[in-house]
Every structure is written in structure tokens, then in C-alpha cells.
Amino acid sequence: MSQITEAQLAATIDHAILKPEFTRDDVDEQLAIAREWNVFSVCVRPSDIAHAVEVLTDSDVAVGTVIGFPHGTTSTAAKVAETRQAAQDGASEFDMVINIGALRSGFDDVVRDDIRAVVAAADGAVTKVILEVSLLNDEQIERGSRLAEEAGATFVKTSTGFAGGGATVDTVRLMRRSVGPQTQVKASGGVRSLQDALAMLEAGATRLGTSGSATILGELRAIEAGESASGAVDESSY
């Protein structure tokens, strides 16, 4: 069992609140989970940013959002405008979807310039570039990661969670190898259990995108409680 603590693990989690069908009550329920478990941030739909900022104003939970989500095919100008509006609404981190078709076509300058424009619009805030690894081969994942780094992104990120696939240990390792130490890796999509979370961190991710925060952290809390109870019993037997 890893020696990671609940607080340390929570500090790696961006709690995803992105389902298109969510009502305001659903969003509020998820914001309450994020607050209860004191995760690093929530990643909300652009239309929910201002509300999330208001709800979480007295907490330590940051508010992030998505740009060009989920397909990445909006124009660069639209992504820039979306980023600026999101920042105005109070978002402090931006997870943008790469132009997947352009990457697959080998249009590296288009991909790099698209990312660079969003990074500039974020004006120093954390930017994460979603590659959508389930739609890419290893060469494209490696090249996309390098392009994101060249464009100044803070993170490369595996997936939206909306394309029928998600993070794997192998893709996280590949992305980690493809960029320098100044660029971080976020594993997202399919991170549902404590085992998943620890495997992604071991592979080189420093941030986890998941809607299963309560499950993951609850598993760790139960283990810590069990170890504590076991220790107490052992001590009393001497």
C-alpha cells in the first residue's frame, strides 16, 4: 500500500462536473462532494463557473473549466474568447481540447498555434491540453505532448472522458517521457478507484481528473482507519 495520505491524494484531484445533463441540483451535489473531500479543484462546464466560484468561495477548492470541449474543433478565436470569458467568470485553470483532426493530419503548426493562443489568453494561469488519447496512436500522443509543451502549456492531459476511452498507465508513461520536467501530466477518464489513482500517479501523473473523488478518497480513508484500528489493537496487547 502506498504511503500517500488522504490530504496528499486529495491535492492531486480535479473533481469533474461535466455531464451535459446535470441540473443545477446535480452540480450543487457535486460541489458539496468536492468541498467535503477538500480536493484540489473542480472542473466545471463553462456555464457553471460563476456559480461554482460563489458556492466554493469560503473553501480551498479552486475552480477550473474546459475549453473547446469535448471535440476540440472550435476555431482558435472561439477558444480564446471562451478562455477570456471563463477567466472573467472566475476560473483559475483551463483544460483545453487539442484540435484532434489537425494533430492526426500532421498539421503541427496549426495545433501548436491553437494551444499557444489559449495559453496567452489564460495570461499565466494553469493550462492543460487534452489530447484524447483513445483517438491517437503512440506517435501522435508523443507529438501532441511535445507540441503542447512547445506552446507553453502547464499540463498535457489524457482524455475528456467523452470519447469512449480514457487514461491508461501506458499512455501516461508515454506522455511523461515525451515532455520535460517542467510540463506535468494529468490522467483523466476511467480513474474510478484508489487502485486506478495510485497507478496513474506511479506512472508519472501529478493531477487526476475524476468524478469518483468520494469513492477514491473513501477507499483510502477506510484503509487508513483500518490500519489505525489495527495499530491500536496491537498496542493494547503488549
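^ that was protein a. below is b, sequence first then the C-alpha cells
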Amino acid sequence: MFPPKFAWGAATAAYQIEGGWDSDGKGPSIWDTFCHKGGGLVYEDHSGDVTCSSYVFWEEDLKCIQQLGLTHYRLSVSWSRLLPDGTTKHVNQKGVRYYNKVIDDLLASNVMPMVTLYHFDLPQALQDQGGWTSPEMADIFDSYACFCFQTFGDRVKLWITLNEPYVCAKLGHEDGIFAPGIKEPGIAAYLVGHNMLRAHARAWHSYHSMYRAKQGGAVSLALNSDWAEPVNPASPDDIAATERYLAFSLGWFAWPVFVTGDYPEVMRSRVELRSKELSCQDCRLPAFSKDEPSILGTADFFALNYYTSRRVKAVGGLPEGCGLKSDQDAEAVVDPTWPVCGVSWLAVVPDGLRKLLKYIKDTFNNPAVYITENGFSQVGPVVMDDVQRCGFYQDIIQEVAKAIQEDGVDVRGYFAWSLLDNFEWADGFRVRFGLFHVDFAQPEKTRTIYRSGREYAGIISKYQSQTNNSQ
């Protein structure tokens, strides 16, 4: 049984579904720039220029949402569609009208929007000024967030400031495989993560002081995390490495917000130690200023994106250079007994979500939790009768139910990734997570429900009926 008013949702992101990359006054984002460089940065040089054309076919998306029986829909707004140069000096009213229509249509269908302000698509104009490596980004993001609260907050009651800052920092600024494609191991990622936390905190404080009393909403940031267990449960080294792995991923952002207002001690001490070994003048992990708004307590709920699990072992002997892996001295691997869905990194481990939820309860002061992304990928030929994905949704939602009923985790909602097959970042259109298949070869981008979409709709209907009957 799920609690009353449990959020049954699906999620999307603006760059991945909207298309219309330069339509109606929209400015370019870093993903526009990254994709347009070509050269294999994205699978077969795919881009989000058109993708699902949701900017044109929003009504078709709404039909999909209604067909599933969703109570909630998580979407992101495109910063550069609203503010083409990233600042409030120039507001694109056509972008405002588009999102007003989306929000109003959802509410008219009794679907609650959860709106993400930043899902990887920084306006290129801001990247040209240093992007997330610039400390000024905290104030710029706060101004953008306040614009959105002021414009849409009379109707939007669930806000996500930032999606997966870990991914933005590591994949975008250490590995260089996501936009903006920067490779500065051990330096840029920590700076980006720091500025994103500062930006989130400022936006939360602005909402709390200026909008909460009148609008009555809630604000958080969406953190991605694997579940992690030691390769050898009897090895103290592997156990310690597992703790470091979680500290350098989930803890990096959750610890400052939910526990102490600062980074995990093991993270700070190891980066300081490695910085001295590398003769860095300063620790590469910045310190939070006491003159700025506090990071601690700046989340009204815990928003979790979970996809997979890992086995972790201790590794050493990485003195050359610096980087997250050498700072944490831990290597994460896929257990060979776990099935893999579509892509090599995505092992299917439903009970890992339950374990992670229990860890969050115990580690981060028993917060209310929304699972804001979770899904199962498909590659190769399109299989509409996707039996494996059907089984996945049955299994994963059972694990969420166990976390609620047996472990006492305060889970408030579950959002499947994704409503639609879409542009999956560096994987382009090769990887499909949708509850609806999108025919990208057709001008109208026809949406067709997968068997798993019908399965998910049935799960929602069943649990909602049980909840209604118990009241």
C-alpha cells in the first residue's frame, strides 16, 4: 500500500524533448553548442535540435500523460527559451507563454507539475562568461529562479532547482563527455559543484523568504546516486572504499544540504591530503563562506534519481595527476551476476533502490523522499512488447513499497524516466527509456505506448484504487 496523495509521475527534460532549438527567440544552450560541434561527441552526431518536437506537439505529450493516469509530471523549463542571454534583461514572452500553457493544461487535467529549473542546458551566453566555474553564477541563477517563482509559482508547488549536479560537474567538467565538454580533472568539477550548491542555496532562501508564504510550495535539488556495496564484504579496505564512493557521489551534495552544511569529512580530508601531495597551494575543494546563505537545510524534500548499483573495491597507486577517482581511491564495478539493460553501465538491481532509500533515511535525518527519476533502457530494434521493462517496473515499485512499509522510509512519489523516448545526451537516440515510443522519422513524431506504459498505467490505477478504498 502506498500513502494517500502519493505522486505517480513520469519525467522529461526540456533539451531532450522540446526541439525548436532556435525557435521563437530561444537562445542557444551549451548542449546546442556541444552537439553542433560534431566529431562524434554525441552518438552519430545526433542532437536535440528537433527530437520529440514537444515545443510544437505539447498536446500529444498531454494525451500520453492522461493515458497513463499520472497524478504528477516532472518537466524542466529551458533557461535559454525563457531568458535567451541567461539574464532577466531580456525575457522571451513566447517562451513564457509556452510554459504557461503546459502548466495550465496539466492542472486542467488534474496533474501536478514538478518543475526543474536547470537540467544541464545552461545558456551559452553564460558559459561564455565562465559558466558554472564562475562564482557569479550563484547570483545569476538566483535571479533566474526568482523570475520563475514569480512567473509560475502561483501554480507550481514542487520545484527542483538543479538536476544531478554531480553529473554536470564530473561528466561536463572532468570527463568532458557532456556539455560543455571541459576536461580539468580534479579541479573544475569541485569548483562547479561548489558553485551549484551556492546557487541552489540562494534560490532556496529566496523562495523561503519571498514566495513560500504566499505560494505554499516546496523546493529541493535532484541528486543522482547508485547504491554501493563492497566487492568483498569481509574486507575493511573495500568497506571503507564503499563509504568513500558514496561520500564522493551522493554525499558530495547531500551532506552539505542535509547534515552539516559542509562536505563529508572523508571527502574534504582526502582532497586536502591529495592536494598537498600534488603541491597545490590551496585545497582543490573550496570552502563555504560564512558570509553567504547557509547551505544546511536548503531542501524541503529529498529528490533522488536512481538507476543502478555497484560493487566497490579499494584501489591505490594512482599518484599521477589528480581527479575524483584518485581522490577517493575507490573503483566501482558491475557485479557480473546482475543483468544489464541495454547499456553497459546500467545493471538492473531493483533491491538496490530499497537499500539506498533506507540509507538516505538513516544518513540524512529521515527526509520526505521523491524518486524523481528511475527507468529501464532499450537499445537496438524497437520492441513494443517490452516484457523485460514491464517486469522491471513491477519489481522496482515493489521495492519502493517495501521501503515504505517495512523500512519506514517516507517516500512521497515515484517518477518513471521517461515519458517519451528522447535524446539521451551523449547516447543520442540510440538509447530509449520511454513509456511511449517516438517515431523520430515521422514529421509529427508519432507517440505510441509501449506495453510497459500500459503496465505502469495499470500499476498506478491499482494502487490508487487501493488507496481510495482504504480511506
